[in-house]
Specification:
alpha+beta; 12 strands; binds heme C; 322 residues; Immunoglobulin-like
Length: 322
Amino acid sequence: MKLFQRLLSLFTLIVFFLPVGCVVYPELVDKGPNAPKSERCGDCHRDIYNEWKDSPHARSFVSDAFKEETNEYRYKFCIGCHAPETIFTNEKIEPRSVNQTEGVNCNSCHLDDCELSGPTPARGPHPIKEKNLFYKTSEMCGKCHVGTLKSWQESGIVEGKKTCQDCHMPVIKRKLIQDDPWQKIYPKREGKQHLFSFQPFLKENENPIKMSFVKVIRSECNVEGILELENTDVPHSVPTGDYGYREIVVTIELQDKTGRIVDFKTESLFVELKTALQYKEKRTIPFYFNCKEGAETIKAKMVRTSFCKDRNILLTEASYKL
Ligand code: HEC
Ligand code: HEC
Ligand code: HEC
Ligand code: HEC
Ligand code: HEC
């Protein structure tokens, strides 16, 4: 059996160096009822698969919010972008008929006609349309992220303006595949993590959203001042998005020396209310706290939150010693 498997691998290895159409692994480029599961891609592209399966794209169909807002999937019109067959269409994006729970899966973004398309010069065991530079553009993401792309485009031609992929798919050097025998013959190369989130680049100093206290005055026992927010580097509004619940809460807290909150003020940013922070925009939030015993520090934070306030992601914070 082992020998047979080895021979089979060898055979595919040889075949893959021949020019092939949808011949080897034809099941990977199937559409309709036989479309492959992303797990199948994960047999070889293990790291990418693991990143994707924890990403928001993998949840886009099963998410409670989507289920609720489509009235238990009754609004068919919504499903195209949330469980698409492929984005390579000139018409409206069509929903997949199978594996819908996978949401935006590998083939949603990579199946172009009967080939798996991507930006790198690659030769693989399956049909590949290589060096497709569309993948490097914000327009690719904008096939579904319509409002965010518009906001990105309207932020003007600024030198060094980053694309969606620059921030939401961080660069990594590794092999594209982690499966034998293939990985033996492939070198490491520059690839992109399929995280589709913004956690990894929120390092100090690199934070694209700045927050600071300007002009804090303590008169008698009152404290007043101004908090300044600036979107220095996110080339879309903060928050962004066309659907779902998108709120960013800015909290200013007055704390005593044990860290106990003695007073606070909050302000929310919403796309719908046109209070989102645009690219390069500076915003000031004045605050005033009445006499409070033992006030020592003012702390501010900016958090992306969910409707039930059960999911909170810290975007940036600042503090000021009185
Ligand atoms: C049998 C192993 C195997 C399976 C299964 C597999 N791939 Fe690949 N794939 C490869 C190899 C090998 C390469 C080339 C890697 C290299 O050049 O470093 C590759 C390359 C690619 C590329 C790069 C194209 C480019 O030019 O940038 C994409 C995209 C891709 N595969 C997508 C998929 C998708 C989607 C699936 C599932 C439907 C899948 N692959 C299943 C082995 C596999
Ligand atoms: C086929 C449609 C489609 C394409 C193409 C697409 N997305 Fe998405 N994206 C979605 C959907 C649908 C969601 C909502 C998932 C959810 O939160 O349930 C989403 C969510 C996200 C989120 C998280 C939003 C949140 O609320 O947490 C980020 C970040 C993101 N996408 C980035 C990208 C980037 C970057 C690209 C381009 C490389 C891209 N997307 C391409 C459909 C798409
Ligand atoms: C400079 C880095 C950067 C670039 C470029 C960028 N983003 Fe973002 N993106 C962020 C940050 C930081 C956040 C978190 C703040 C927020 O929610 O608005 C974010 C948030 C998002 C969200 C909402 C996630 C959430 O739940 O808050 C989506 C969707 C998104 N980006 C999509 C895109 C798309 C599509 C593009 C390209 C048109 C893009 N981004 C370009 C940094 C970037
Ligand atoms: C939302 C769209 C989207 C989804 C879903 C997606 N990819 Fe990608 N993929 C991209 C983009 C965009 C790039 C190129 C990014 C760049 O180079 O800037 C890419 C690049 C790749 C590459 C080329 C090498 C690399 O690391 O850049 C491979 C291989 C690949 N994807 C495989 C997969 C597999 C396997 C899955 C499913 C587990 C998957 N992709 C899911 C958009 C997607
Ligand atoms: C053009 C593509 C597209 C269509 C059509 C679409 N969506 Fe979405 N949806 C997205 C994208 C992209 C996101 C993530 C970021 C955003 O809100 O723009 C998203 C996010 C969501 C979210 C938030 C998910 C979460 O977990 O936070 C909900 C809810 C949602 N969509 C519901 C719907 C409903 C209901 C419809 C039909 C009326 C619909 N969508 C149609 C692209 C689409």
